[in-house]
Write a structure and sequence with these properties.
Distance between the termini: 13 Å
Helix content: 40-55%
Structural class: alpha/beta
Strand content: 5-15%
CATH class of the largest domain: Alpha Beta
Low-confidence stretches: 16-28, 133-169
Order of helices and strands: HEEHEHEEEEHHHHHHHHHH
Number of domains: 2
Largest sheet: 5 strands, mixed
CATH architecture of the largest domain: 3-Layer(aba) Sandwich
Strand order of the largest sheet: 1-2-3-5-4
Length: 327
Amino acid sequence: MGIRLQVTVLLAILASGAAAFCRTAEAPVRTAPPVDLQEFNYTHSDHFDLYLQNAVPVDDKTLDLLETVHDRFFGLMKQRGFKVGKTDSFTWICFNDRRSYESYARTVDGFLADQLNSYYSAKTNCVTVLTEFQHSNSAGADDQRPQTLQISASDLSGPEAEKIASHPSLMPAMLTHELIHQLSFNAGLQRRGVEYPLWVSEGLATALEYLFEEPGANEDNPYRLQTMLRLYRQNRVVPLNFFISMTSLSGASLTDTEIYAQCWAFFDFLGTMHKDQLRSYLVKAGRRYPVAVPSTALQKEFIDAFGPLEPLEAEWDGWLGAKDRQL
């Protein structure tokens, strides 16, 4: 499914859900930084507050990109009948020192960020970005290069960051990915505090990664599709009995990038083939009490919505095969 069609189907699924879900989403409030950032420089645009460690370079194109995605996201929401109200500023915290970045993630958000270069925290409602990562130059030697926010924002782990650096067209998509997380939790598509499986949170974010492009500019998510089909051809797709209840990147035999690709493809599959069940599932998940949920409960919740896993897995495998044959 092309990106434009995927976005349309996604919002149609959600907009036609119960009014108690996200038609009455509250407008997000201004988020104060969770720690003292007096030594950080500050810049802002209409809807974003950016705190920059050691004068991290952020060009106008980056701010324009954030504003463009913001406006298109909420524009689509309003077109589909969502009541989102006036939005306030969203906070981004940008580090150019990995030690400080990892210390912040550990202290403020309580997790290890050594395999991430950026992340959105539903706890603080902030996007945190590392703007410097290991990069191989053309001669093959490793060096540390300060990167602009536009280049470095990525949900990819260490070595995968080099792939982003060598594919400039992916860099805005990585920024957009984190922003979609932030917007989704502030527009009512997801509820802060609720524990969602990865395929929901990352499937939603990857489905909208190319929202920064003009309509029709990119009719598919080529990076995610290429990665997913490689998994399919190598018979390395994570089985559904494990995949549907994954809430973290640990425990799987795939790289982070490969897991994100499967989240993207599975969300697309359900949105295409089982959109009514997907809508019901998301509505029910959004009403769940915000506590940690055991994997057995997540599996039951999924099966209650979509039916037994064995026939669904066979359909999923056939859907991937059809995607492969289309190329």
